[in-house]
Specification:
Blueprint: E1 2-6, H1 12-22, E2 27-29, H2 34-37, H3 45-51, H4 53-77, E3 84-87, H5 90-103, H6 109-126, E4 132-137, H7 140-150, H8 160-175, H9 182-185, E5 189-193, H10 202-218
């Protein structure tokens, strides 16, 4: 299994749909955002977190970790020859978002200790590391403009300062590999510069697809060769 990572607004959902379109033999696994973005629990926990992070950080971070661990274990249990690409992961949830929440004092010391105990119990002991990370790297400025453009209700209070914080966390996690589990340091990372719009830019998209095809081969996954396909621009949203 490969994990598709990147800041909020990097274009992960769109990229994953495009990848599945061009490489239909892979299994694309969407992030289970409905569990915290919509009103599954009677309210949008994502909106609550952005509006009042100190009140909702622990609830939000624990829920997202639980959902991601459940998804990871399900795919791990039903492992087969299919190449899988999952949007975001238990690892970025911990190293980027939860770490940032603690650094910004959204999580108290005792909440952070409890969260870390759950992570230490579940992840190293239960979850196998991925075959590789695919990092969609964008500047905070580009991410912020894309977020404003898509105009999601839950993100109306999302600040540029928060995006810069999360960008730095992704750089530390995936580029510098600082302070991460030893078995993750050995996991290869494919970094794609996604500052340039790719959905309606065939040349840029095809460069990304070829890079991923090569990455799959280098890391031991055998998928049919990438072939260019026509896409209606309106069919996918960034």
């Amino acid at each position: 299994m490969y994990l598709l990572e990147g800041n909020i607004g990097a274009g992960k959902s769109t990229f994953l749909r495009l990848l599945a379109h061009h490489m239909p033999n892979i299994k694309a696994i969407d992030e289970p955002v409905n569990n915290w973005q919509n009103t599954v629990y009677g309210q949008s926990l994502l909106t609550n977190f952005y509006e009042d992070p100190k009140r909702w950080a622990y609830t939000f971070e624990l829920l997202t970790m639980t959902c991601r661990v459940e998804e990871h274990l399900k795919e791990q249990e039903h492992d087969n020859m299919t190449t899988k690409v999952a949007e975001r992961s238990i690892y970025s949830g911990y190293y980027c978002f939860a770490h940032n929440s603690y650094a910004q004092q959204f999580l108290s010391d005792i909440e952070w200790q409890m969260y870390q105990e759950w992570f230490s119990f579940l992840i190293p002991n239960k979850c196998k590391p991925p075959q590789g990370f695919i990092y969609l790297r964008v500047s905070p400025e580009v991410a912020y403009e894309r977020i404003k453009k898509r105009n999601r209700h839950a993100e109306k209070t999302l600040s540029f300062a928060y995006l810069k914080q999360i960008h730095r966390r992704h750089e530390s996690f995936l580029t510098k590999k600082e302070g991460i589990l030893p078995n993750l340091k050995r996991v290869p990372v494919l970094t794609l510069d996604c500052n340039e719009e790719f959905e309606n830019n065939p040349a840029q998209l095809h460069r990304h697809m070829h890079a991923i095809e090569s990455f799959f081969v280098q890391t031991g996954s055998h998928v049919p060769p990438y072939t260019q396909k026509h896409i209606h621009p309106q069919s996918l949203a960034l």
